[in-house]
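protien #1 (seq + structre)
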Amino acid sequence: MRGRLVLAGRLITTDLRRWPLPAVLFVLVVGAATASLAAGMALGETTRADYAATRAATNGPDLMILTADQLPVERAALRSIARRDGVTGHVGPYRLLRGATLTAHGHRMTATVEGRSTAPSAVDQPRVTSGHWLRPGGAVLERGFAAALHVRVGERVTLAGRTFPVVGIAVTTATGIYPNAGLDVGPNDYAGLVWLTDADTRRSTRPELRPGYAMGLTLADPDVKAFQNTIRPALRANPDVRVNTRGRRTTEDSSNRVLANSEAVLQIGGWLMAIAGLAGLVSLSTLRSDQQLRRAGQLKAAGATPGLIGTVLLAQYVLLALGAAALGLLAAWSMVSAAGHPSDSLLHAPVSVGAGTAVPVCVLALLIALLTSAGPAIRVARTPTVAALAGRGGRGPTHPAGLTGLVGALPVPLMLGLRLAARRLRRAVLTAAGVAAVAAVIAGLLCWHAQPQAGALSVRATHTYHAILAITVALVALAALDAVVIVWSTALDARRSLAVARAFGATPAQVTAALVLAPLPAAAAGAAVGMPTGLGLYWLVSSAGARMDATPPTWWLLAGGAAIVLGVAALGTIPARLDARRPVTPILDAETR
């Protein structure tokens, strides 16, 4: 057993040294797909970790209670709730001013003002990340809001007609992250958050501003909904008391939703890259198996079993897949660490990639390895020894019945191209699937540009756009590589038949055109399927939920599909022209030997 393992290890090492380029391309494609999938899965965990770290640093409340006005009866109702059993701590009631206008650097933004004490509170004490906490006449800005305004400590802002120096920048989990940080009784007002002293808040009151009170509670029972149900009857008993309650789970979910679309885009993108890369990888694997036939015959002649040969061929792809998965996880960790934090409204916790992410990533990598290598490995292992020594694998090309008679009257390039397209139907199907994956993500990008983007969703939309753009760039680069590899492998696979065609009068230009035309039917079919598929995928991850506000014009989709097909043709010209220039005589001589 040990001897077989040593032999298999040496054979695998020799194979990788002899054909390094296919191995490198395999690792790059699988690594890109697994990195995208891992990044999408890690984003959600990162957001939750950021929220947990910020909540711990600020002793965030379990429940926020907000009033619609500043009536004495509302303040009394909040104080009575603070004295209930099960309340372990509270902050407030403190004053709120909603709908205030804040001006900084020429930008006018809506803000909610909290009137807080200069002394630290036991519950919901914002964590100052720059400058210091409140002082009379100074303002502290929530960090996500300050980042959106490009405001730093020491600068001055105008709030509700008064000018304040910014003495600090802080974070909190009492509200959602900016732009969902408003404290309103009704729908969220997408306002930023500013802290002033209670005295400055009273002096900033204006008739147009909506006043209110807020109070934060920590509870002994983690079931916040049960406490909300307990206090609701008492609050409803007095019609003058209008309040809204917001549990920490609601606040956390609003933070997680900022990257929800990006998570879905990256995860879907990982699978699309795997689909797009299969066509090129299978073509490379098939070429390698053709080159390995004689070696397999020599091993069989020396006593090696078909099982050993098949195991060696499969094992090298499995090892490469696991290595690519490890690189993908490392790349995902680096990307999420650098750009995976949704907002400056939260502290940045260390990024970790756990087993919940690693296992699906490894499964994807192994699935690509099996789909790439299983067929060629089994074919090589089953090839009889004599046929393998002669370099003939018994895998002759197939043409649909009647194809010759159908294309015989066509121009030579088109006739040869259609025969090449029908020669390997599996390659055509994989090519169509790869182009469909690229067309889907391009359709998603076009659909994003067709949407009327709401300013309140700008942060979420920006993250989503960056994710779609990154996946689009990666898939286009992968498709370009696939186009070159597929035409190159088609040329190598059909080199003898094309040499015969040239011997009977076909010119190098006609052969070049035939190689370029061969993948175009599959590419056109893939684009036709991929464009509507992309609209459906965008609908799944759309911030509009079950609807899309707009769809891209039809001519956008047609132009995108046409550009993909033309791009495949243009990239295929490079290997086609290089191969068509080879002399015919050496190829035919090798065939007759």
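ok now protien #2
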Amino acid sequence: MRLVCAILILFLFSGFSQAQENTTKLLAQAENTIYSDPKESIRIAEFVSNKSDNENELIEAAYILIRSYYIQGNYDEALKVGFQFSQDEFQNADDTQLKINVLLTRILKELELNELAQKFMDKAISASQRTINPNTLNWFKGKMIEYNIGPHSEENSENYILKLDSAKREFKKVQSTKHSFQIGLIDLQIASIFLKELKLDTVPYFLESANAESRSLKSGNFLEMMYMLEYGKYFFLERDHFKSIDALNVAQQLAEKFNNISIQHSISEILADNYLALGNVDDFTRQNKITTSLENTINEHEKNAVNTAFNFTSDYQGTVLTKAESNYSLILKVFGGVFLVVLLIWQLFVWRYRIQINQYQSFIKYFDSKQKPLETVPSVSTTAKSSVIPKEMKDILVEKLEEFENTTSFTNQDTSLSRLALQFDTNTKYLSEVVNSHKGKNFNAYINELRINYIIDKLKNDPTYLQYKISYLAEESGFSSHSVFATVFKQITGIPPTRFISILKSKKEMLAENN
């Protein structure tokens, strides 16, 4: 009997060991495919999450999921998994929870939820004080340096590069081949700095350094995609537009493989700029439509991610309040909740504003000097089916409209059909009919076109207007908000105001160089 029990126990133990070994192999396979096939990594990690009840395996699978979603640009799903596993307590998992909190910090900073990002950075710092693993500590030091000097840092570029070099040294101390990815990304960041400063002679060195690191990974990896994207930018600034397009097409294929909408949008923007510089209007128009579509998708995805962060914060605060002492008053709870909502909504609006203002400013520096200037297409007059206006009155109103167009009265925000009719000593019906029949558009479209043409004239002829913010240009031309101004501007000219301003700036730079 004892022998039978011993055999049974041995059989069960060997089965358990075999299952654990299989899970370890699966997690290793998922880890090795994160940067080349994140979809496969997600599939494996989700399988382990559903089948395993081992805490260490669960949190390792969670970390793989978060990184894979991040590589795809799927911040919403990354936050959902990350929030869950950053809050739960796992024994002997400080190193992995530290890394999860660091990645959550990165994602939240990119969403500009900086206060919430700081919360997770504090948790990561606390976890780092408990770890004794030198590889983890070196990795963490590198990440601390890298993430604290993000793209919105006020440091000058020289100090920025010095810090990036310092982060690279920390990653090289990590006893693993996985540091190649981190080092390659830093080389690309340095190359990006030199691109923005137009120090093009230095760029190829860092691009090739990043490419060398990418070759240590599986072909078609995320680092290779980013390398081709930066090379596309480099060739664009060198005005070798055909090479730029070739590099960007390779990057686009990889971005589609990763399903990373954000990277696809960046690539599409520069492709459109190349077509514009080559004077290829059809391809520019097609690519510009793709860029706009991708931008709308990005806004929706990031909105979902912000909502996920907001829901997590609300749930977390609710749990804290539930555990608090009963003498906390209801009004304090309501006030705290309202304050949190206002804070997060404010941060969301700031984020959306910065996206709209900065989305076209990074890459457009030079355009073909033969590019034709944008013109407003004249409207074709339509004949009213039946007119009750006396001819003399109609002639007077047409003359007054011409005089009105030669003033700047239309930039007044209170300009309306009724106010202008009163000013012209007529009624709204007469004035509306004259505008429709002689201008080929309704009154609002007529006023909007005058305003846009007015501000375009200012932008072309007064260089100081190129430095003004969109909100100022909107107010100057008579619009109630910069968002309405941007929408109307694009409807009339076919491109956003920020891109129009960039084109004018680059033309002036080219003229200055030629002179």
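The CA atoms of residues 438 and 483 lie 29 Å apart.
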